[in-house]
User: What shape does this take?
Amino acid sequence: MLAEMRIQGLGVIDDATLELDPGLTVLTGETGAGKTMVVTGLNLLGGGRAEASRVSEGAKRAVVEGRFAAGPAALALAEEVGAESDEGELIAVRTVSADGRSRAHLGGRSVPVGVLGRLAEASLAVHGQNDQLRLLRQADQRALLDRYAGDAVAGPLQAYRSVRAEWLKVAAELVERRDGARRLAQEADMLRHGVAEIDAVAPQPGEDRELVEQARRLAAADDLREAASAARAVLAGADDAADAMDAPGAVGLVGEARHRIAAASDPELTALDPRLGEALAVLDDVAAELTGYLDRLDADPERLAAVLSRQAELKSLTRKYAADTDGVIAWAVDARSRLDNLDTSDEALAALAVRRDELAAELAGHAATLTAARTEAAGRLAAETTAELAGLAMRDASLTVGVAPCVATAEAVEAGEAIVVDGTPRFAGGSGTDEVELRLTPHAGATPQPLHKGASGGELSRVMLALEVALADADPVPTMVFDEVDAGIGGRAGVEIGRRLARLARSHQVVVVTHLAQVAAYADRHLVVHKAGSGGVTRSSVRTLDEGERVVELARMLAGLDDTSSGRAHAEELLTTAASDKKSAPAAKAAPKARRKR
Assistant: This one.
């Protein structure tokens, strides 16, 4: 249960603390005093949407803090997210800054906002006037019935959804294969051509890198041979005898110089011959060494040509399929796998069609089970709700909960979104093949009408309350909050609603925002939102009323004035009647206690 809630900087509420007890707590106040902000705070505490516009004018942030006496589910959640509890209590905090940013904390630990939503699911249910609007939509009516049915529907629904997902997947694959047969055939041809081209070249892992190294070595040897051969030719002359006459080389030229000097009779010239002889000896030695170097050099032009040719083959693949041979090999592997899955043969299509039909039959079985479970639960929900309506000043009213097949349209059948259940094609939606509709008979002799047609605002409020009471045991949460569930109601009906809420508070903590004194009279704790203006700014606070103050507040609610004798007398009469009703009621179930912190 919720033991305490503090609100700061939210709307017209500057700083207010609500101390809550087990039983029925009512919250009243003048129009515009800020009762809505209390409900807004509860929604924020439950992970609801944060809006910067809700932050008080001039405030940096709005803060809502709640102290929960946690049950097993809430404590398990706290342990899961690493939050700390204090003797079974959890502190949840929601902060909304003026720029719209939101933060959440649980047990002193920063958590995603969704964690507070999960805490609320286990601890708190807020019902407002928006719930009445949702009650008019068939999808929400079906969800309400499923919530009431509990595991009887949850199990078949989970099985149905699991099979439906597989059925839709297979059906979509079949449609894709049929409609895209030409495209798939073209893709298959392209893949087969690529695989064949790669297989013909047969690249090996890392082969391109290895060939680059081989080519570098072989190309370098050829360049060295060319350089050494040219140098030797310059020194020794050409190897070819005919060319040697025209290009004798440096050795031959030096020898010719010595011959010319020797033929001269001038001593000065002949003195140069020894030096020319030395030069000739050096040139002969270098030429001989170049010859030896060429003999030792390992060159293989044919191997180089083969390497270059292989590189060209591999490059033709890397231009098309990948950046290197490893990528080309991987492409071929993926292409073969894709080809295995691109079987567009009639046999493959037939096998898919058989699988689709098998899944459709299985899905129809789950849908039938789901329909049966909903139908059984619908009867019980209708009976319980009708009984509750009798206690809410609608004695001759009755509610029926209809479960009917959602008959498939021709378009749904053609689109493959229908299955046959009990011989009828039905639309296979995400929540089954059923349509659920709540119909109200407001009085004896009336024709049952859908809620959106046959219920007034006051009747709709009472139907919602009756349904929530029926759901209380099927989907229990310790704390139930009702925001003006008595809208459109007055007089005797208000007394009946107050009496019913007091009965509900025997097993739940119930918090009610109300404008009816007849409802407020049944409170175990009465809180009032009081507004005060200062400097043109309205600020509100929340306080607990004692018995004397309750008389004054109820008189105000009845007569619109704080101090009238008739209003006070009526208020005291309401309080006396409510106290008598609660005293004569059966003993209440024990509700969880929370330590009061001051």
Observations:
- The first strand starts at residue 2 and ends at 10.
